[in-house]
Design goal:
This protein is an alpha/beta fold. Helices cover 48% and strands 13% of the residues. It is built from nine helices and five strands. It has helices at 23-36, 52-61, 69-81, 84-92, 103-111, 117-121, 140-145, 157-170, 184-203; strands at residues 12-17, 41-45, 96-100, 132-137, 175-179. Strands 2-3-1-4-5 form a five-stranded parallel sheet, with helices on both faces. Helix 1 packs across helix 9 (184-203), helix 3 (69-81) runs antiparallel to helix 5 and helix 5 packs across helix 8. The chain is globular, with a radius of gyration of 17 Å. Mean pLDDT is 94; it is low at 1-5. Bound molecules: 2'-deoxyguanosine-5'-monophosphate (DGP) and sodium ion (2 copies). InterPro entries: P-loop_NTPase (IPR027417), Thymidylate_kin-like_dom (IPR039430), Thymidylate_kin_CS (IPR018095), Thymidylate_kinase (IPR018094).
């Protein structure tokens, strides 16, 4: 379903939020919705654990390996960089990408450990900038109640509270704050509306921002 020549590009739409905020389910639902109305869309997620860098990240998250905070930060960023050219190709061919976590996770999770904010942001410069960030907003305590956390490294209430503060400091005009405490179907409908508007904006020719 890709486009040729000067046809409109796809939109880069990122879902962000704390662990257990509902990003992964909502991302999948959004992609099904877009495909259902005949729009070319793909579900992406970061970290992409299928690459060799992704496997190092996965081992770190499951506590099978230990890495310096700066080192793991750069690996998460490298994991986005290794997908950059494919992302741009997809967007240019008219496919909308719904991305479960992106650079904002990269900065928020490392800054929550106390790393310098500017240092955290630096390796993200030059990656395709999202057209829209959907932030699934949920109090950390509520997220922790949702079926409990798994065993991964960051899934702890005290740490998630710090991540929430860091996310809060990162908000900009590309963000839409979604109340993620409501029923799933309500959130799903709201996201559909917002995303439709955004796709229209890309059709009127916004360049892929860097
Ligand atoms: P997920 O597969 O979405 O559950 O993400 C795994 C965990 O890794 C989750 O706790 C969030 C965290 N995470 C995601 N992206 C980054 C990143 O770029 N940097 C850091 N430090 N953590 C990240
Ligand atoms: Na997780
Ligand atoms: Na997720």
């Amino acid at each position: 379903k890709g486009n040729k020549g000067n046809d409109p590009r796809g939109a880069l739409i990122v879902l962000e939020g704390l662990d257990r905020s509902g990003k992964s389910s909502q991302s999948a639902r959004l992609v099904s919705y877009l495909e259902g109305i005949g729009h070319s869309a793909e579900l992406w997620r970061f970290p992409d654990r299928t690459t060799s860098v992704g496997q190092m990240i996965s081992a770190y998250l499951s506590n099978e390996s230990q890495l310096d905070d700066h080192t793991i930060h750069l690996l998460f960023s490298a994991n986005r960089w290794e997908k950059r050219s494919l992302m741009e190709t997809k967007l240019k061919s008219g496919t909308t990408l719904i991305v479960d976590r992106y650079s904002y996770s990269g900065v928020a999770f490392s800054a929550a450990k106390g790393l310098d904010l500017h240092w955290c942001k630096a390796p993200e410069f030059g990656l395709p900038a999202p057209d829209l960030v959907l932030y699934l907003d949920i109090p950390p305590e509520k997220a922790a109640e949702r079926g409990g956390y798994g065993d991964e490294r960051y899934e702890q209430l005290e740490f998630q509270k710090k991540v929430a503060e860091c996310y809060h400091a990162l908000r900009d005009s590309s963000w839409k704050i979604i109340d993620a405490c409501r029923p799933m179907e309500e959130i799903e409908k709201q996201l559909q509306g917002i995303v439709l508007d955004n796709i229209v904006a890309c059709k009127v020719g916004k360049p892929i921002s860097q």
